[in-house]
Structure formats: C-alpha cells, structure tokens
Inverse folding.
C-alpha cells in the first residue's frame, strides 16, 4: 500500500504513544529493512530531502519522523538526547517496526547513536551524517560566528540553510538552491515550524551531549552495528573531525568525507551519496 | 590489442628512457583515460592486486609499473620522492600517455602527489591509498613495533604482508590470505624481488618525505585534481590520520575509511573499493 506514494505525496500520519501524538510519513517498497529518519535541529518533516528519501524508498520503506514536540508532533521536547532517543524509540515501537535502519542527521545522529546503545536489538544499520560523538571536539556549543546563522530572519526562512548546510563556493551554494527547491516542492499537507520552546530544549540537549567528559567516547565501543559515517570537508556546525572520531571509535564504521562541503554534504553530493547509502543499506 | 590480456596474462614489457629500462605491464579496454599504478615500498609488478586491476581494466587501460631500480626495471632507485616522481613521469612520457589517472598506494601515493605537483597537466585524477602528505603525522619513521614486520623472513616471503596490510581480526587476516592467493596466481613471467640497495634508497626517500617541516601541507593546495583518498581504520605503516589530513588540505578530495582494517584496506574490502574507485575514475 505504501509504495504508491512518494516523498511529496505521502500523507502525514499520526500515532499516539503515552499521550504524545507523533507525526510521521511512511512510504516505499516494503521489501527491505525499513529505514527511520531522525531530523536535525529546527527541522521538521519537510526538511528531509526528497532526492534522498525517494532513492531509499526504491528498496525499503522510508519513515520520516517528527520527534516529540517537533512540528506536528505533540508532547514536550526533552532537553536531553537520552530523552529524545526514548521518544523516537517509542514511536518506532508504536509503528510495530521490530528491526530498522536508522538515518540520523546532525542532532538526529546523536539520537540514532543513543537508540543503538539503549535498544541495540532494534537497530540493524546506522547512517550517521553530519554528526558527532558525545563529548566531541568543539561540540558543547556552536562557534561564535555560527550562532547568528540560526537566528537570522530570512524571507523565506529556509534561506537560513544555505550558509549552514553548504560551503561558500559557488558550486556548493548552487547545490544549496537546488536543495531548497526540492524541499519546497511539496505543496499540500506540509508540516509546521518548530516552536521556540522545542528549539530551546534541543539546544540544551545538544549542549549536554557535546560537553567533553573523560572517556566520553567509550560508549561507541558498545555500538557494534555497521555504520556509515558521512560528512562535508568543513562542517561548521559539528566540526568534521568528529566524523573521523566516530569512525575511529565505532567498531564497524566506514567514513566518507566529501570535498568542498559543509554540514549538509549529502544535500550537495546527493547522487553520489545515494549510491553510497543505498549500497550500504542494501547489504 | 591490449584488451585481450588480463592481469595474469599481460606480458611484461620494457621501454628505455635515458639509459633506464623500465618494466611495465599494460592491458585493458582502451576507451577511457589510462590509469597508471605506482607501487608500494618493497613491491614489484606482482604486488598489484588482480582483483582491482582487472576491475579497472574493464573501462580503461591499466599500466602497472616498476619504478627505476625496482624489480625488472634497471637504473638506480633515487633516495627522494622527487627523484622517484621524475622517473615515473619519464616512463609515462615514454609510453606516449598524455593524460592519465594515477593510482598510488603507500609510497606510490607520495610519488603520485609529487607528479601532480610537478606535471599537473599530465594528471586527470588521483587515487591515493594508504598514503600521507609530506611531513605528515608520525611519517618520518616507522613505529618501533612495525619496523621488524618489514625485516622478518617468511617462507614464502609474501606472508610478511599479512600483519602489514591487514588488521589482527580473523576477518581481516582471512581477507589477507585471499589476497596472497590472488597475487600468487600469475605463474609465468613473474617479476623479481626488490634489491637491498633499492630498499635502502626508498627508505631514505620515505624518511625525507615524512620529515615534519613548517607549512609542510601547503603544497597540497596546489593539487586541484579530483582525488579519492582511501585508507583502513588503523594503518600501522602510515597512520590513518594522514589520510584525513590529505582530504582536509587537498582542494578537491573525497575520503573513504574502511572499518577493521590496516594499510591494505583496498585488498580487504576489494569489491566495495572497486565500486568506489571505478565510480570515481568513470566520472
């Protein structure tokens, strides 16, 4: 039934767990292990890239999620990654998915790691894009010149993602404008902006996750799942070295870094990324 | 004419330049840009992996090379990478190849970088495997526990590559044994071992290349060629961080790091590596 839909036509659906009504979209070919996508800070269901999700949907069901307190999901956004992981896992359970691949981008990558730690049997493979480990390098707070990029008003507001996801080069910015066209293309049944309260809670969660602590990478040894770690050459949000640290400390991780790119390298090298990621989840 | 041959049947050929008789093998489909392979320390024509070269040969000519003083090539091995790069470029010129992709593994990767600096117009794309930049991290000499791995006698001697190219894991060592079967499969017209004099000269070249110096990565900004940088998660010969440094300093490089692997990750994840590398040189 779900395979009749694509990214732009899949209806927003809802499932209620413990008083939280989670918003999600689900579509794709129900032959492979379903893949659950976990969104970045300030993103909702409309910030997933159709060029990526439609490619994934050829070989599996794709489940796009709003975590608690995000967009059309109700509930209170937790101020820890542990809380966000509990909520996301409860959504996966409510959808009766027993074994999933997780695709976490940025803060969604923190959540994916935490689910793999807390619920290892639920997870088959991890795709960790533009993310980093607990207590990573310069992850406790955003760089001073990056903070304003998240606070500047634009018209339309999604222009904020151009300097955050893409490098200053002409080629990267052009890729960014194509990305914006893609995420604007869905016209009906769109999600709603993330609230200020949720933004504040998620900022606190990111600070707590990023705070350096002794042995803060040790938990990675307890994530045996095959992982594909991907980032841009110069991620200004979660410095690229953190992707290297993930690969070096996860027992079974492959790393891919793209040239001339920033936090959203997968939105820039989308065709190539799709070949890598579908190859990885097809295994 | 060359496409009738494969790795194990391509005859060893010779070309003379300035009194040096270079040994090489050349075969493959003459449709794409030819790819020239530059060998690692102590390796000769029989140390290239047929599983990789045959895959490359589907879409282009493959030219396996012995640099000056190596195996069946005559001449004196230079004791600098600059000298090795001059020799390798003179071989490429003698074969009347005007535009090539370079595939350098380990010390062959140093040579490939130097050719790209000295002869930028000769090079289209770079594949840099298990290698590092001039003055890289812990590259001036081998780690004390690694030195004996290059000096221990084995019967047959190629068993030395198991701990050098592969990780201690059972899976990696098993991959290593398959690799040895592959490089032993050619029975006729084999190359001869690298001489002690050449080993000493190349060791000096590696020391000189690896010696840290101020601004030693600056030259990488002058290599605009698209580059694919590949390594294992824990390269004990040229520490993995050097592949990261290459990617961070080359203007247009993609990095791939494989899990549970060592200096010879491409001999371990060969099928996956072949998909990545053929995708890269097909572009």
């Amino acid at each position: 039934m779900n395979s009749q839909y694509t990214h732009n036509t899949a209806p927003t659906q809802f499932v209620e767990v413990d008083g939280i009504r989670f918003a999600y979209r689900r579509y794709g070919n129900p032959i492979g292990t379903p893949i659950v996508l976990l969104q970045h800070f300030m993103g909702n269901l409309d910030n997933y890239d159709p060029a990526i999700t439609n490619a994934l949907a050829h070989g599996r069901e794709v489940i796009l999620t709003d975590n608690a307190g995000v967009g059309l999901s109700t509930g209170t956004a937790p101020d820890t990654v542990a809380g966000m992981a509990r909520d996301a896992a409860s959504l996966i359970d409510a959808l009766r998915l027993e074994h999933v691949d997780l695709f976490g981008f940025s803060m969604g990558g923190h959540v994916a790691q935490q689910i793999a730690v807390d619920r290892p049997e639920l997870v088959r493979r991890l795709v960790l894009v533009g993310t980093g480990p607990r207590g990573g390098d310069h992850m406790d707070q955003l760089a001073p010149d990056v903070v304003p990029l998240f606070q500047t008003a634009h018209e339309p507001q999604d222009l904020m993602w151009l300097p955050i996801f893409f490098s200053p080069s002409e080629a990267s910015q052009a890729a960014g404008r194509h990305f914006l066209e893609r995420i604007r293309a869905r016209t009906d049944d769109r999600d709603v902006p993330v609230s200020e309260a949720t933004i504040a809670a998620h900022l606190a969660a990111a600070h707590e996750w990023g705070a350096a602590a002794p042995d803060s990478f040790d938990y990675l040894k307890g994530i045996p799942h095959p992982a594909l770690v991907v980032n841009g050459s110069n991620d200004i949000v979660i410095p690229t070295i953190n992707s290297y640290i993930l690969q070096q400390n996860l027992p079974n991780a492959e790393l891919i870094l793209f040239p001339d790119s920033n936090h959203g390298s997968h939105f820039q090298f989308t065709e190539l990324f799709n070949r890598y990621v579908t190859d990885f989840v097809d295994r």
